[in-house]
Amino acid sequence: MRIAISGNTYQHEMLEHIERLLLALAARGVQLVAERAFDSYLRQQLPGLPPMRQCELGNGVDAQAIMSIGGDGTFLRTAQAVCSQDIPIMGVNSGHLGYLTTADVKDTALIVEALTGGTYRIEHRSMLELGCDSAQVLPPLPYALNEISIVRQETSSMIDVTVDIDGQPLTHFKGDGLLVCTPTGSTAYNLSVGGPIMEPTTRCFALSPISPHALTMRPIVVRDDAVLDITTRSRAPFYQVSLDGQCTVLKSGTSVRIARAPHTTGVIQLQGTNFAHTLRHKLMWGKDNR
Fold this sequence. Notes:
The protein is α/β, with parallel strands linked by helices. It is 19% helix and 40% strand. The longest helix has 13 residues, at 15-27.
């Protein structure tokens, strides 16, 4: 079995556990392929690591699975880079909350047994794709597993976001911006702005206004095969679009199109983990502290 490794370089407190995990995988005959920057970082800190061939995630990865070591940011970056390659991702948490991860980096035996024994399931999560007539202004990876946010840029003035669904007018969202999220991203930025929680494999998207100017502007859920045409105007000359933290700046009045991406992200889940369990244990959903 060949497994690719991605990660961030803020792992100083977890290096001992990462080394133990990689050595255990190598001892079981797993071939390891490491993201170039992450491999260089680890070898500076851990000279006793097993041999790992280097790769760039966006250039075609020859592996049966990818292990993302870090937090949710690392997982989202990995998903953006490899979504077109149909390689499932296991999130291994070495950060704080790690909502998208399925195991902790300290759980060496659990991770090794699952990957080498195939005792896991894969959930296919829908993604968003951003399109724009001014293609040169788009980020190189115009996909998002969590959300695409449209927000004001360098101004305190509200922006006016006009949304059409399948060519039919929906409304004008006036405020700090608009969030379009997948079910996977419904428990992230969307939740903090008052949007709905959605089971991650459902076929829908949510549109949630950010600090709306009118209380009548409420979140709305639409089917995920809908195409959204969005035009944003502002007193400022520019506004910002962010795809899972990957930001680009567009001129006021520029229109974008958001639709379901042609790719999905395969998320590896260990046995015993499920959506309700994650909500209860990581978001304390329904917990009564009285």
